[in-house]
Amino acid sequence: MTDLSTVKAALRHQRIETPSWGYANSGTRFKVFPQEGVPRTPHEKIDDAATVHRLTGIAPVVALHIPWDRVDDFTELAKYAAGQGVEIGAINANVFQDNDYRLGSVCHPDPGIRRKAVGHLLDCIDVMEATGSRDLKLWFADGTNYPGQDNLRQRQDRLATALQETYDRLGEHQRMLLEYKLFEPAFYSTDVPDWGTSFAHCLQLGTRAQVVIDTGHHAPGTNIEFIVAFLLRAEKLGAFDFNSRFYADDDLMVGAADPFQLFRIMHEIVQGDALRPAAGIAFMLDQCHNIEAKIPAIIRSVMNVQEATAKALLVDARALAAAQEAGDVLGANAALMDAYNTDVRPLLADVRQDMGLDPDPIAAYSRSGYAERICADRVGGQAAGWDA
Ligand code: LRH
Ligand code: MN
Fold it and tell me: Is-above-0.85 flag for pTM?
């Protein structure tokens, strides 16, 4: 049986990275429903991220998105974050919202547009220098909508050239995380559509290029934990963008739509000894809270990852391995399901108390008065958001 103090120690050291854009207004192409008290500046987004960390104890990092989080002085912003008890994590580039990128960014047929896009990626590395961030996170909306619209092979050549130039600019402690997505906003071909394409480009680039698995970016029915196991074995798994979905890239709270899938993913992480921060995997949330209160939604999401992790840590690895070696199909499945069917909420309440935290972060947030305070304080100005 797994030793409980080891499990508790692993849970105390878990690190989850929350997305600055998860605190801002977001929506769909149909509507963005603005909410009261939403941050108006990167500093206010950091305040909200710091609140999530204060209540959960395991969310000490906030990812930024450029230009959504552009400021005049990123070194000052990093200092401000440190003063709030959090650090700035991945820097997300954005080459998907400029009018010039209608036919793509780094894969665009026009070399001038490609030049502009690469320029932004290099600017993001300068931001990393100022914030002390390790990760440059790249997601490209690039693709085509109709067969014949462009040469699929030449687009891969353009992508490889842009990635190589960006990779060569990275500092030795920095790395590039390449995210893939099956479709949207492109609806015929996407230039980085799946893990294999990202993996191949990362192999070609070098050790500091790794794959990001966004749990909402796969075809329905994809066995994501297989991709996790494969990339871990190849030492090419750099990060997760955690969220959940019922249909497409719904960006719902992680674990909300499919908590069993999240457990199976965390089981591969634990089994691959990749949970500890030193293993270098960034566990990020990438979500949009279109109708629900944003800070409680992120607290709930952090707790969902924690619950899946606790269950994965409770898997009786010896019993599982013995059953697998014996070809005991039902025994092996039962070893996993016993852990999954374990109610870990009392264990997590203990862990939080050991960390000097309230056992119920959601209740603690409601009692804190933070929600009322930000609604009162954040009046006027432009609420941050996708359409801001
Ligand atoms: C693309 C994506 C990417 C981010 C964006 C906010 O769908 O997952 O990770 O840049 O969402
Ligand atoms: Mn993502």
Answer: yes
